[in-house]
């Protein structure tokens, strides 16, 4: 019977029900809900008591199988898989036996292999198929499986991607189990065709999404792998950003009370958070790994220490020659004092090379004074203990990076924006460059790379700025500083809020929702969590 002939025999409302279902399937974006709609629609049209939706999966090693995705049985009140929250613990059905022969005994695998619909009036009398498992289930449950209608789900490439199996058609008036009507077969086939197209599109979209996710995480891992000193930064900033976004979605009052993210917007935020430092791929490794002020490819402190060693040896040799010619205890004391001064100066330079939060002016002056010391090179010529370049590096006030090096680091934001804006993001990811490219902006417009002000930035971009700072402050893998405790980190963020560098409303939310604590309990050392009451860090 053809589809038009079949629909002519059907009630008018059922025809429009089929049209409605096909339209709904094409618009469903949630995979689990799509599975359920397919099965529910098929049961609705055929008055089936139960049904199962299988998908073909191909394990990395092994042959294709039919995996249970949704299982329904009204009489037994079974609702497994999908959005039910109840997992299906049944093993998948292999399409091929161990010897490679097709598994034609099972009705579902037979349908998948032959691409043909099977309409069984009574499973207990179907000799060409094996219903041993069905009978065993009936014996355990007290159920009687009788009529089956099994349909292959075939995509546009004429490939079977799944199987729709319906069980025990019911008479609408008496509730008695009856065979599936032949007139319904073209209708179910049409539904299966629409379902296969919708399902195939969804699977294709999910495969592309999985590929994009994997690609994004590979980039983040590559960035972290460039430097042992920021090895988890790209993985932890997304965690903090999502914690803040979740708190904003839950806010009942204040400026963020209307903030919300749908499923697509959550995904957009996650992509941006994972990609926020992608421009660091263009940052020289030696800058990312610059653990000391004189570290330029190799740590230059060793060269300076060698000069001190040479100066001490030369000083000692000079005095020993004098003492050999004329022994003098006072002269020996002068030698010992001079050697001690050299050792002390060398130790000071080593300490200054490490860097820190702030270098005092008097310490910078001492570096310049030490630079005036002389030593003899291999040609016997006097050389300064420190070159002008080394003096400039050793006098860096904060951290280990010079102004030029910090600019190169900052350039990663320009590269990030350029990289992301060059990608053809689909409509639902169009804001990724704006979210990711704004985490070094400041609310007063003094940040980089674009000098944006608060009102020019979205909430997610402002969230990412706080997440980036907090992760850096509390991180335990930075070579130039110890990991800060929560109290220190919140104090610094509080000052940045007062200076209009971070968003004040988001910082209040950060405190109120205890994002700092949720993050610390998972990612920080126990001794870092030294705050129980965030009240002191709110605006006065």
Question: Strands, helices and their partners?
Answer:
Elements: H1 3-9, H2 12-27, H3 31-46, E1 48-57, E2 65-73, E3 78-81, E4 93-94, H4 107-114, E5 118-120, H5 132-141, E6 148-154, E7 160-170, E8 177-178, H6 185-226, H7 233-250, H8 263-274, H9 285-288, E9 295-296, E10 298-299, H10 301-325, H11 329-354, H12 361-371, E11 374-376, E12 382-384, H13 388-394, H14 403-421, H15 432-436, H16 459-474, H17 486-498, H18 504-512, H19 515-523
Antiparallel strand pairs: 1-2, 1-7, 2-3, 2-4, 5-6, 6-7, 7-8, 9-10, 11-12
Helix pairs in contact: 2-3, 2-6, 3-6, 7-8, 7-16, 7-19, 10-11, 16-17
Folded structure, characterized:
- By secondary structure, the protein is of the alpha+beta class.
- It folds into three domains: 204 residues, Beta-Lactamase (2-Layer Sandwich), CATH 3.30.450.40; 174 residues, Hypothetical protein af1432 (Orthogonal Bundle), CATH 1.10.3210; 106 residues, no CATH class.
- It contains 19 helices and twelve strands.
- A hairpin with a 1-residue loop joins strand 9 and strand 10.
- It is elongated.
- The N terminus is likely disordered.
């Amino acid at each position: 019977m053809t589809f038009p002939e079949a629909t002519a025999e059907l009630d008018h409302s059922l025809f429009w029900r089929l049209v409605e279902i096909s339209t709904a399937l094409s618009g469903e974006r949630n995979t689990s809900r799509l599975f359920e709609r397919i099965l529910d629609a098929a049961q609705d049209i055929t008055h089936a008591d139960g049904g199962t939706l299988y998908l073909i999966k191909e394990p990395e090693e092994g042959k294709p199988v039919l995996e249970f995705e949704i299982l329904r049985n009204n009489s037994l009140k079974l609702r497994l898989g999908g959005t039910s929250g109840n997992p299906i613990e049944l093993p998948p059905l292999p399409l091929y036996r161990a010897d490679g022969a097709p598994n034609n005994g099972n009705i579902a695998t037979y349908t998948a292999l032959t691409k043909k619909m099977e309409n069984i009036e009574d499973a207990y009398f179907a000799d060409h198929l094996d219903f041993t498992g069905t009978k065993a289930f009936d014996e355990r449950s007290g159920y009687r499986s009788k009529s089956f209608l099994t349909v292959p789900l075939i995509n546009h490439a004429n490939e079977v991607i799944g199987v729709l199996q319906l069980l025990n058609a019911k008479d609408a008036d008496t509730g008695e189990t009856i065979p599936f009507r032949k007139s319904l077969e073209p209708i179910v086939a049409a539904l299966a065709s629409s379902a296969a197209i919708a399902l195939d599109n969804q699977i294709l979209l999910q495969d592309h999404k999985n590929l994009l996710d994997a690609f994004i995480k590979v980039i983040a891992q590559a960035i972290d792998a460039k430097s042992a000193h920021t090895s988890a930064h790209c993985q932890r900033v997304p965690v903090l950003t999502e914690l803040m976004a979740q708190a904003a979605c839950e806010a009942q009052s204040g400026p963020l009370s209307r903030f919300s993210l749908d499923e697509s917007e959550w995904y957009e935020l996650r992509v941006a958070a994972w990609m926020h430092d992608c421009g660091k791929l263009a940052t020289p490794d030696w800058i990312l790994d610059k653990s000391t002020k004189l570290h330029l490819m190799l740590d230059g402190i060793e060269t300076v220490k060698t000069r001190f060693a040479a100066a001490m040896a030369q000083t000692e040799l000079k005095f020993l020659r004098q003492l050999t010619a004329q022994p003098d205890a006072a002269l020996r004391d002068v030698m010992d004092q001079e050697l001690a001064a050299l050792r002390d100066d060398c130790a000071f330079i080593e300490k200054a090379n490490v860097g820190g939060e702030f270098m005092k002016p008097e310490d910078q002056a001492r570096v310049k004074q030490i630079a005036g010391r002389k030593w003899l090179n291999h040609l016997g010529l006097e050389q300064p203990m420190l070159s002008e370049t080394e003096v400039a590096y050793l006098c860096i006030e904060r951290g280990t990076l010079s102004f030029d090096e910090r600019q190169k680091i900052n350039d990663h934001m320009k590269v990030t924006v350029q990289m992301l804006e060059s990608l053809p993001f689909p409509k639902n990811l169009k804001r990724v460059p704006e979210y990711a490219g704004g985490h070094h902006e400041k609310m007063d417009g003094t940040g980089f790379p674009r000098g944006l002000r608060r009102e020019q930035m979205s909430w997610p971009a402002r969230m990412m700025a706080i997440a980036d700072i907090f992760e850096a402050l509390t991180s335990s893998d930075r070579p130039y500083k110890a990991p800060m405790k929560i109290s220190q980190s919140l104090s610094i963020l509080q000052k940045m809020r007062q200076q209009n560098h971070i968003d004040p409303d988001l910082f209040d939310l950060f405190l109120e929702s205890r994002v700092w604590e949720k993050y610390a309990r998972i990612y920080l050392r126990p001794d870092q969590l030294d705050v129980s009451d965030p009240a002191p860090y709110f605006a006065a």
